[in-house]
Structure to design on (585 residues):
């Protein structure tokens, strides 16, 4: 657990880079620092491994004040992935990955085994890649090496400064997925800086949104999307993403006109209607528009001699037009293809348009999210 | 054909003293090269760490001034200070070769991507570990090419050291001028060239070996 308490940073020229920063980075979570450029997100991250010093406040690393720790030892305990990968061009992939274990003077055999294990973890064959130089690798491969280099000495915490920003969209997606998978396997505390909201929403457990050196809002992606603190947050998230996260009002999901039958018509007639319109169920109404119930084709066919009102299917539960879409979704497990929508005075208004609802849900759950 | 047999004759008579001149030449040159490398490379590295721009500028200016003094003049200035012979020659040549290597070392260290340095820092390299494992190896191509160029210069300038009595192949050339002996002039020149080429070749090999960590 890393805690930043009341951190201020003022440069010599009087510019206040950070104002009263309070964050708790919980163990085993992906924490994303996000904001427009110059907001202090990278500065905040670099406070943790003391690449940047603060003017006022306190940073606790597992309860210990980092000012009391040797900066070099502290840094060796924290993995570090920088923006443009930062692989050492004069070293082989093996030596790059082995950097921190070598600094820590691990046993040679142990280093070798560790490097191989890490290369396997990101699906790069050790035999092929160990002795190559960074210039012989593609961008995505380099960044994978950058990430496993940070993992090499098994740090509990990893700092990542816009690690995927220089990659093409496909590699970026892949690496984000890999990061999420890796995180599940290795369970590190990750502090990740980005300016890409899609990336943040995709990977974060906690998002810390910053602007002009202070924290505007922090919370889970869900919380931030549901309750953006102010207009800046809304704007930064983007109306498009916000819009998609909100379910449309039920009124927008009602399908009219609809096929129905009157309660005094014959069962034969109802069957005809259903066959003609190729539906498996049909709502039954009184003349004045009041909803009576719903009859399904199967029951009607096997009981042609009975009155329609005797064949009503009790499992079809109508919903009310003033219901919330969220609640409706919860009731939809009944799996009926017809859900009548009634007004408050029990008049039938229409049917729930399930095709439209599924379409909305599809968009929300990522059908289009994540692609710019 | 006459010329060749005459030249062969010249060598068989004088080879002992030619070799002496050559050895002298190499001793002066190599001494200067070694001193220059050991003084200038650390100085260049130190200067990249120096925050004070004024001092940095001043150091470059001084090195620059030595460079602008004509070689012969610099050697001549040494006579009232250090007399004649080996020492003043070495000092003069050292001052003369200060700038090219200093500039290359400095440029090499500056060429290391600051992001790489930050990555190294962030990963927990100490100052000296970073210098020897990251910065110097990455600056090495610049430093080595500086050493190679400077070495070739020094070998050629050493020829002039004969003017202040330091000996070397310059003596052979000067004597050749005095006696109007083409063979002496030619031999002195060609041997100086050969030493330079040979050294450049060796240093090139070294560079290749060192750049693979």
């Amino acid at each position: 657990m890393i805690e930043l308490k009341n951190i201020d940073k003022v440069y010599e020229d009087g510019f206040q880079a950070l104002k009263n920063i309070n964050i708790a980075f919980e163990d085993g979570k992906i924490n994303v620092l996000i904001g427009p450029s110059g907001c202090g997100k990278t500065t905040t991250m670099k406070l943790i491994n003391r690449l940047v010093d603060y003017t006022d406040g306190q940073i606790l690393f597992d309860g210990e004040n980092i000012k009391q720790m040797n900066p070099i030892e502290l840094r060796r305990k924290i993995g570090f992935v920088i923006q443009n990968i930062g692989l050492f061009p004069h070293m082989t992939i093996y030596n790059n990955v082995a950097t921190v274990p070598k600094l820590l003077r691990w046993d040679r055999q142990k280093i070798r085994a560790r490097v191989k294990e890490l290369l396997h973890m990101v699906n790069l064959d050790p035999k092929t890649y160990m002795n190559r130089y960074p210039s012989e690798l593609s961008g995505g491969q380099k960044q994978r090496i950058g990430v496993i280099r940070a993992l090499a000495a098994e740090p509990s915490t990893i700092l990542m400064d816009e690690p995927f920003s220089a990659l093409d969209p496909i590699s970026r997606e892949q690496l984000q997925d890999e990061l999420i998978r890796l995180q599940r396997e290795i369970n590190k505390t990750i502090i990740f800086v980005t300016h890409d909201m899609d990336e943040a929403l995709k990977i974060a457990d906690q998002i810390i949104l910053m602007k002009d050196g202070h924290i505007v809002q922090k919370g889970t992606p869900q919380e931030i999307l549901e309750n953006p603190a102010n207009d800046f947050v809304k704007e930064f998230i983007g109306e498009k993403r916000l819009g998609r996260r909100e379910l449309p009002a039920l009124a927008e999901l009602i399908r009219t006109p609809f096929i129905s039958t009157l309660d005094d018509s014959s069962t034969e007639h109802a069957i005809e209607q259903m066959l003609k319109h190729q539906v498996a169920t049909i709502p039954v109404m009184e003349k004045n528009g009041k909803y009576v119930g719903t009859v399904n084709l199967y029951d009607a066919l096997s009981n042609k001699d009975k009155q329609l009102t005797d064949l009503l299917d009790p499992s079809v539960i109508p919903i009310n037009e003033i219901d919330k879409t969220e609640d409706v979704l919860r009731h939809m497990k009944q799996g009926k293809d017809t859900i009548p929508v009634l007004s408050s005075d029990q008049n039938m208004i229409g049917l729930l348009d399930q095709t439209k609802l599924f379409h909305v849900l599809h968009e929300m759950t990522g059908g289009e999210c994540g692609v710019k | 054909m006459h010329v060749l047999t005459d030249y062969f004759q010249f060598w068989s008579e004088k080879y002992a003293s030619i070799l002496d001149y050559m050895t002298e030449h190499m001793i002066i040159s190599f001494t200067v090269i070694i001193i220059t490398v050991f003084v200038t490379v650390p100085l260049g590295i130190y200067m990249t760490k120096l925050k004070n721009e004024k001092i940095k500028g001043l150091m470059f200016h001084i090195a620059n001034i030595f460079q602008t003094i004509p070689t012969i003049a610099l050697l001549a200035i040494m006579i009232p200070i250090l007399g004649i012979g080996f020492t003043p020659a070495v000092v003069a040549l050292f001052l003369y070769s200060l700038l090219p290597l200093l500039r290359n070392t400095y440029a090499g260290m500056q060429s290391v991507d600051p992001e790489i340095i930050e990555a190294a820092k962030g990963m927990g390299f100490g100052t000296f570990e970073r210098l020897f494992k990251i910065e110097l190896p990455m600056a090495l191509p610049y430093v080595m090419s500086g050493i190679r160029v400077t070495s070739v210069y020094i070998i050629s300038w050493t020829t002039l050291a004969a003017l202040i009595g330091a000996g070397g192949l310059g003596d052979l050339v000067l004597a050749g001028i005095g006696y109007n002996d083409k063979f002496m002039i030619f031999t002195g020149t060609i041997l100086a060239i050969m030493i330079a080429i040979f050294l450049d070749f060796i240093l090139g090999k070294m560079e290749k070996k060192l750049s693979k960590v």
Q: What stands out?
A: Chain B has a mean pLDDT of 89. The two ends of chain B are 52 Å apart (CA to CA). Chain B touches chain A at residues 113, 115-116, 118-126, 129, 134, 137-138, 140, 211, 213 (CB under 8 Å). The CA atoms of residues 133 and 197 of chain B lie 30 Å apart.
